[in-house]
Amino acid sequence: MHNSLRARDMAYHFHSQTNPRRHEAEGPLLITAGEGCYVIDEMGNRYLEGMGGLWCASLGFSNERLADVAASQMRRLATYHTFNHRSNDPTVDVVEQIATLSPIPGSKVFLVNSGSEANDTMIKLAWYYNVARGKPGKRKIISRRGAFHGSTVMGAALGGLPHMHESFNMPGLNVIYTEKPHYYRNALPEESEEAYCARLIAALETLIEAEGPETIAAMIVEPIMGAGGVVTPPAGYFPALRQLLTKHDILLLADEVVSGFGRTGKWFGSEACSFVPDMMSVAKGLSSGYLPIAAAVIGDHIYQAIADEADRIGVFGHGFTYSGHPVTAAVAADVLRIYQEMDAPGRAAELGRRLFAALDARVAGHALVGEVRGTGFLAGIELVADKATRAPFDPALKVGALVEQRCRAHGVMIRNMGDVISICPPFVMTPEEVDQLVDGIVAALDDVA
Ligand code: PLP
């Protein structure tokens, strides 16, 4: 046993977002194969993946066409870089496709490897843009409590989840926080969605005026907040936010790492939420998670302001060895072609209707469930101790984690963020598999109730 996969993992692997002592006690869940929408562990147990892994695998886990694209690109040009004007054909293909799909006018695409790097890139671009415009004092970034924007130093600073900051003695990176638009949890009794939005926007304007708009560069938002609890904003929130930020010359950066490429039933979450950002970050669904690739997508107004001043202020000092890696670019370019062929937004909307019909009929009324919410093929289930008062469970009870464990026992993978269960399945699921996913969740809720 001492050289089993489990033992070797426990001996050598320091896991992401994992308690090391608990890992020593419990060992890994070793996934050794993927087939359609299932992943299979080393014992042969099959799990229907309701999260596409980590909000990624929109095309499931065994797309042969992508395997062939990767192999043939690796045989033709396995690696090269894009510094100092170099490029390669898969990179041209993928940036053209991203820019064409992008709702931001005149998009230019800066390739990176992860969602965190894409967000870091947007922040550095916002700072560089303000230096180019002669406004170097505009540096602060507004983010929202509960947000998740990645794990790099800046990504974690942007995030509004306490465990991503505490214990790191995070340096002062000039991030300021405002409330997330979580109507179910934070609206006042009897407050309408319109009144709730107006209150949040007014509070944000007070914050902007107190800090001084001349000190604020940008605000970063997930159109649909993912890890913070699949928070879908009330309809008027983003149009009002866009107006407020424009008034104060503050850039609006959309983190589309989860919500991009069809997930919301539109190509991008900003379209589902009725706003146009100045820049957006994309990752995850861009390659369906098959290889690490991400991008910051930049509006023409920002690009032109920067390009005009590069001789004076120096080139944009940023970029990664694997920015525009030919193999990751070739796979992402083909993923985008597959999304177009299958009409990914339409497919997500259709499967989402099936999912929400089943959740509304079989989950929303469950004693443990306060709210079912979401957009497109992205759903959250908020668990509560008391349906009538919306009182949350004592976090020490770890009810969400228990539901997640029981789902696994029923052959279904979901993800719990505290007491919100998230669902973000592959677009290649069959309608019957959507029903099976809900069967597993209902059985798990019944086990825990
Ligand atoms: N932004 C959002 C909204 C995310 O959900 C994530 C990851 O889950 C990230 C950024 C970070 O992406 P990555 O882990 O690829 O750095």
UniProtKB/TrEMBL annotation:
Annotated keywords: Aminotransferase, Pyridoxal phosphate, Transferase
Similarity annotation: Belongs to the class-III pyridoxal-phosphate-dependent aminotransferase family.
PROSITE patterns documented for this protein: AA_TRANSFER_CLASS_3
Protein name, per record: Aminotransferase
Requisite cofactors: pyridoxal 5'-phosphate
UniProt keyword DNA-binding, yes or no: no
Keyword Transferase in annotation: yes
Alphabetical list of SUPFAM superfamilies matching this protein: PLP-dependent transferases
MF (Gene Ontology): transaminase activity
InterPro entries: Aminotrans_3, Aminotrans_3_PPA_site, PyrdxlP-dep_Trfase, PyrdxlP-dep_Trfase_major, PyrdxlP-dep_Trfase_small
